[in-house]
Known about the structure:
The chain is an alpha/beta fold. It has one domain: von Willebrand factor, type A domain (Rossmann fold). Helix content is 23%, strand content 24%. It contains three helices and five strands; from the N terminus they run αββααβββ. It has a three-stranded parallel sheet, with no helix packed on it. The longest helix is centred in the middle third of the chain and has 12 residues. The mean pLDDT is 86.
Amino acid sequence: YDILKDAESFFTKINVHIIQCDSQVQQDTRIACQEDLEDFLGKGRLAGGGATDFRPVFAYVEQLREQGEFENLKGLIYFTDGYGVYPERPPEYQVIFAFLEEDENRIPVPPWSMKVVV
Length: 118
């Protein structure tokens, strides 16, 4: 929340989707203004469980792109533990896989993506 709120003019024009998934997309919450974000943070619940497969999210985002949901998609930030099936081919936008901690046991992220530990 702090990162999004501190971004200069973030809430002037915003179209963020918080997509929750495991082996399939469980929930998509669209954030278009500060009130949407505050409502999600106040009432939102985590959805999903184990058996993560990253590919359904990428397919879902592509479907949203085809429907015109994104005017100029800049990228996707995927918060994960890293245990799942990665797509083989890169999408047409930048991808960051974000982790809460380093883990030597998980497989590396695809070469077309960036890994960030927050």
